[in-house]
Design brief:
five-stranded mixed beta sheet; 30 strands; flat; mRNA transport; WD40_repeat_dom_sf; translocation; nuclear pore complex; nucleus
Length: 692
């Protein structure tokens, strides 16, 4: 059965908007329409159904949690969180509604946007943007009027003026790490602000992420100087203290950390500067903000304008956390990497991939924007601290039109039989487009891993550091030296514009020569340092590349180690069995030896004869051994005597040679006798065994 013909897409009545949501890997499917939820696994041919009571009308957006266990529905007046009962069938709505919030129209503002907090422990926190520009962080385990840790950001504190507040917020989005909440303001056209850190009362965060935050905080703290504003110093020190307290909690992989309420009340910082800022942007209004991941730790900001323009932005400076500073702005900088002009539409990230997003233009066409031709290179350069590859890089994305797709209401990825497909649905149709999971080339890495002859690694540093240090020391010593010739004070006070200024010009020429020599040395040191920096950057790139290759082989080594460990375990088990059998046999022999039954048994005549024969043969063998030893001693003695005689008379050599030959014949006869004795012993032993 094809995806488009799946029964989950069949309409049960009504003509309202359909929302399709899937898990990150595309294996779990959820569809909402007309206050009802359908869900199934991608491999199932049937789906489960549950209706919502009471109904919720005019739903603006549906969001599936990262674990695909919770479904978030909202309109301008209501927010509802429903648990998807995976593994159950024919269930009722009672017991699966986890949160419901109704806006009090007399006292509260309407709802504009709602998100799950990506770092919330067990997905307990939802973030609500209201039309009065306040941002509410709610715990779904409690009703709105009984929230134990209700947190409202960007709220007016009653002071005169609007300083420190973000107004006319159109859209919000979390950064890839879940720590920063970006807001898009249309007050001045298109301004971006950040709430950092934006955290719930309980977070679930990786210890490695905490370590990375600590490293950033240390670097920011060490870069503080006298010129740094007091507000930045205060926030940087407070950030260092905050991260230090988080790292003191027990770390067991993924951990739950409770954060005190005083650390949660953060203020917005910005607006971000955008450079370059095209002139046509001044006449436009911002509409939507999305965060596009391009690497493990890098992301881009996508800002859409009301004329269909999409600004692709990159945060080029590291932010500092802000708690108590109004109108705070430090390192709030964005670089305009690319400006894309398409039809006006909604930005939707492509699931299962990085660097790609769709533009759903409503009644018109659908476009796929692929930034990977340059964004992957940019991400790698940032991670490797090597900007050389982007020197000649063209920051131009690949834009393709999805043919045959229009009037799209929702998009998601459906993965069936390890083959993912992009699914676009409208009120009346379902569009299926095949896609690929990974578009990253792996052939080069696999080819490197299969190489047998691996060359020896050599450091790519041509100039030793000792030489550079020596040049620097020489320059420092030269720079400290005074001028070789002192200028007469009387000549110093004479104006240069006089008829006798030739001598003054000569003095200036000599002084200039000395300074030029020092400048030449300084340039030489600088040139060497510059080359050294380039070489170190290249060497760092190589080492990171090789480190990446080594890390990629860890999985193979781990799997091979597991197989070898299992083999070793089986060998050890076999050895234990053999040792048990050996110990059992030893115990049996010991019992036989200690048994009086075997001690009282008489030796038979054949056994007596066999033992006597063995004893006789042993005696004969020992006698032959002693004879051989005596003959060897005699041979050594004769050899010594022959050596003495050879010095006295040369003719003795022939006689000694004949004696030596005779002695060898005697030894050969003795050897034959010993072999014959051994054969007789073996024959006697075989006869005794046969008779027994």
């Amino acid at each position: 059965m094809s995806i488009g013909s799946h029964s989950i897409f069949k309409r049960a009545g009504g003509n309202s908007k359909r929302f399709l949501c899937t898990s990150q890997d595309g294996s779990r499917i959820v569809i909402y329409q007309d206050s009802s939820i359908r869900w199934c696994n991608a491999s199932d041919s049937k789906y489960e159904f549950m209706s919502l009571e009471p109904t919720i009308e005019d739903v603006e957006r549906v969001v599936l949690s990262p674990t695909a266990t919770l479904l978030l529905l909202y309109n301008s007046k209501e927010v509802r969180v429903v648990e998807i009962p995976w593994g159950y069938s024919q269930v009722s709505y009672e017991g699966f509604q986890k949160f419901r919030y109704l806006v009090d129209l007399k006292q509260e503002s309407l709802i504009k946007q709602v998100l799950f907090h990506p770092l919330a422990y067990r997905e307990h926190c939802i973030v609500i943007l209201k039309r009065d520009n306040t941002i509410h962080l709610l715990d779904r385990y409690y009703p709105y009027d009984k929230q134990p840790n209700l947190l409202v950001l960007n709220q007016h504190d009653g002071a005169f003026g609007m300083e420190g507040l973000v107004t006319d917020i159109e859209s919000i989005a979390f950064s890839q790490d879940g720590l920063t909440l970006y807001t898009l303001s249309a007050a001045e056209g298109c301004d971006i602000y950040a709430f950092y850190p934006c955290l719930p009362c309980s977070i679930e965060i990786d210890s490695h992420q905490l370590d990375a935050l600590m490293h950033k905080s240390i670097v920011q703290y060490e870069n503080l100087s006298v010129e740094t504003p007091d507000s930045t110093k205060r926030n940087t020190i407070k950030q260092f203290q905050f991260i230090s307290k988080l790292r003191q909690r027990p770390e067991n992989g993924q951990t739950k950390i409770d954060i005190p309420i005083e650390w949660l009340r953060v203020r917005g910082q910005g607006p971000f500067t955008i450079a370059p800022f095209p002139d046509r942007y001044y006449d436009r209004t911002a509409v939507q903000l999305e965060i596009l991941p391009i690497g493990a730790t890098n992301d881009l900001l996508l800002m859409s304008l009301d004329d269909g323009t999409i600004a692709v932005l990159y945060k080029d400076l590291e932010l500092t956390m802000c708690w108590d500073s109004k109108g705070y702005s430090y390192n709030n900088s964005l670089a305009l990497v690319e400006s894309i002009r398409l039809e006006k539409g909604e930005l939707v990230l492509k699931q299962g991939t990085m660097s790609q997003f769709f533009v759903l233009s409503g009644a018109s066409d659908v476009y796929l924007v692929d930034t990977s031709p340059w964004s992957k290179i940019l991400s790698n350069c940032i991670e490797n601290s090597d900007l050389e590859p982007i020197a000649d890089l063209q920051f131009k994305s690949k834009i393709s039109k999805i043919e045959g797709v229009s009037n799209v209401d929702s998009y998601a990825t459906w993965k069936k039989d390890s083959e993912p497909s992009d699914v676009f649905i409208s009120k009346d149709a379902v569009f299926i487009k095949p896609t690929t999971v990974s578009d990253q080339p792996t052939s080069a890495k696999e080819q490197k891993n299969t190489d047998i002859n691996v060359p020896r690694y050599e450091v790519a540093l041509n100039q030793p550091m000792s030489e550079i240090l020596s040049l620097n020391a020489s320059f420092q010593a030269e720079a400290k030296k005074p001028l070789s010739k002192l200028i007469d004070p009387s000549k110093r006070q004479v104006k240069l514009n006089n008829e006798y200024n030739e001598e003054q010009l000569e003095i200036l020429t000599n002084v200039s020569k000395e300074f030029l020599q020092k400048i030449v040395k300084a340039q030489a040191v600088g040139f060497n340092l510059h080359n050294r920096c380039l070489e170190q950057q290249y060497e760092l790139t190589r080492q990171l590349q090789y480190s990446g290759e080594i890390l990629s082989k860890q999985e193979k080594l781990r799997s091979k180690s597991q197989s070898q460990s299992s083999q070793c375990e089986s060998k050890l088990q076999r050895q234990d069995k053999l040792l048990q059998r050996f110990s059992g046999l030893t115990e049996k022999l010991k019992r036989i030896n200690e048994s009086p039954k075997f001690r009282e048994m008489n030796i038979t005549d054949k056994e007596m004869a066999w033992f006597k024969e063995i004893r006789n043969q042993v005696l004969v063998f020992n006698q032959y051994v002693h004879n051989q030893k005596n003959l060897q001693d005699q041979l050594r003695y004769l050899q010594k005597e022959l050596d003495k005689l050879s010095l006295e008379d040369k003719n003795v050599g022939e006689k000694s040679k004949s004696e030596w030959t005779e002695l060898l014949s005697i030894l050969e006869n003795d050897t034959k006798i010993i072999k014959e004795c051994n054969n007789q012993l073996a024959h006697a032993s075989s006869e005794v065994g046969f008779n027994t």
